[in-house]
Write a structure and sequence with these properties.
Layout lengths: L1 E5 L12 H14 L6 E6 L5 E5 L12 H14 L7 E3 L2 H4 L13 E3 H11 L2 H12 L2 H14 L22 H12 L2 H7 L3 E4 L4 E4 L4 H4 L3 E9 L3 E10 L2 E10 L2 H18 E5 L9 E4 L5 E2 L1 E4 L3 E5 L6 E8 L2 E2 L7 E9 L2 E10 L8 H16 L1
Parallel strand pairs: 12-17
Antiparallel strand pairs: 1-16, 2-3, 2-10, 4-5, 6-7, 8-9, 9-10, 11-15, 12-13, 14-19, 16-18, 18-19
Helix pairs in contact: 2-5, 2-7, 4-5, 5-6
């Protein structure tokens, strides 16, 4: 048996949260967004909602956008303590021999993880990427194995990496959708934002200047990252992120004919997203309900929401959302924190669009026989008074 604990929250239409609405919107989006590329995609980061997509699963060369995954693995190693930003990395002959964009590392040269990561994020250094990969995994090939394993974990079904920097290699492919997935994961780490949002900086004690290859960082309002790439075979590519009014978008563009078209296409996608949508937090205000517990060391258990209640809504539509919370009538001990006790459901026009579990906020042990007797005695004493 369930009980109703709340009714309407803010009246907001969750247009992009519902599959049918997303599909209908995609049909008209192409008329509003001018994208010149082989493939493209626009994703809202918090919810992972795709707002626009064209050829998003076509396998294409990503060029240096590959380094999103390289930066992800390095960032995860830093956050886990496996790697330290001040740690020194010694450049191998192989790393120093990388072509394309580079920071001209010399064999035997030592540089901190911090400066190498900066060289990857800002200047797209192929040599810096390999130096980090070798230092972390022992060899580039071992690091690439980790890249492909991480890609599989993220659900990147269109992806196979052959190197850590995106230099042309047979079979080195991904898709706009997969790039959005790994970009979303990377942006979930606050540490990397100190790198990918840099416009200009330097390494080697100021002797070597770095300028971000992503020009949107300089001129697009709210730009937060993320990574460019280009080769003759891949064309001009970018995974561009920007944040406004609490909503962050990821625009992926693959295979543009020129650098200018790449940036213009990314800008058009971002403009479309910011112009048409907003991210709203519909988390219930105040304390969440307590649920009665039978045969527990405490008579009630606190609850919490197991997930985000932020939803993507279309601008201008504000009267179709309802939010309802339901819990079980009671729960039996023992309980563990995280045990499901109810749901918060968001509907649009009566159609469910998003649910968030309501779970136990703490452990509740089961009463012992002595505890049961003591509680009964206490209640009898109170009644006698």
């Amino acid at each position: 048996m369930k009980r109703n604990l709340s009714v309407l929250l803010a009246a907001l239409v969750v247009w992009a949260s519902c599959p049918t609405a997303r599909a209908e919107n995609a049909e008209t989006a192409g008329e509003l967004v001018e994208v010149s590329a082989k493939a493209s995609l626009l994703m809202e980061r918090e919810t992972g909602t795709v707002l626009y997509a064209e050829n998003e699963h076509e396998q294409l060369e990503p060029a240096s956008v590959t380094k999103v995954m390289t930066m992800l693995l390095v960032t995860e190693a830093l956050e886990s303590g496996t790697l330290r930003e001040e740690e020194l990395v010694t450049t191998s002959e192989y790393a120093a021999g990388m072509g394309g964009s580079q920071v001209y590392l010399k064999e035997g040269e030592q540089m901190t993880v911090r400066d190498l990561l900066k060289a990857v994020a800002v200047a797209s250094g192929n040599d810096a990427a390999v130096a980090l990969a070798e230092h972390l995994a022992g060899s580039e090939s071992a690091f690439v194995e980790r890249m492909n394993q991480r890609a599989a974990e993220l659900g990147m079904k269109d992806t196979h990496f052959c190197n850590c920097n995106g230099l042309p290699a047979e079979g080195h492919m991904t898709s706009a959708y997969d790039i959005a997935l790994m970009s979303r994961e990377l942006l979930g780490h606050e540490l990397i934002r100190d790198y990918v949002g840099i416009w200009m900086d330097s390494i080697r004690d100021g002797a070597f200047e770095l300028a971000n290859t992503n020009k949107l960082i300089y001129y697009y309002e709210g730009a937060t990252g993320l990574k460019t790439g280009s080769t003759d075979s891949a064309g001009y590519c970018i995974s561009a992120s920007a944040q406004r009014d609490g909503m962050e978008l990821i625009a992926v563009v693959l295979g543009s004919d020129t650098s200018a078209l790449r940036f213009a296409s990314a800008k058009a996608l971002l403009n479309y997203g910011f112009g048409g949508y907003t991210l709203v937090d519909v988390t219930p205000k105040g304390q969440l309900p307590q649920v009665p517990v039978s045969l527990g060391e405490q008579e009630t258990v606190s609850t919490r929401l197991d997930g985000s209640c932020k939803i993507l809504v279309a601008r201008g539509d504000g009267d179709k959302v309802k939010v309802q919370m339901e819990t079980v009538e009671s729960a039996s001990a023992p309980l563990s924190a995280g045990d499901r006790l109810g749901t918060l459901t968001i509907t649009v026009d009566g159609e469910p669009c998003q649910t968030v579990d309501l779970v136990a906020g703490e452990d509740v042990a089961r009463l012992t026989y002595g505890g049961i007797f003591a509680r009964l005695w206490e209640k009898m004493a109170m009644q006698a008074e």
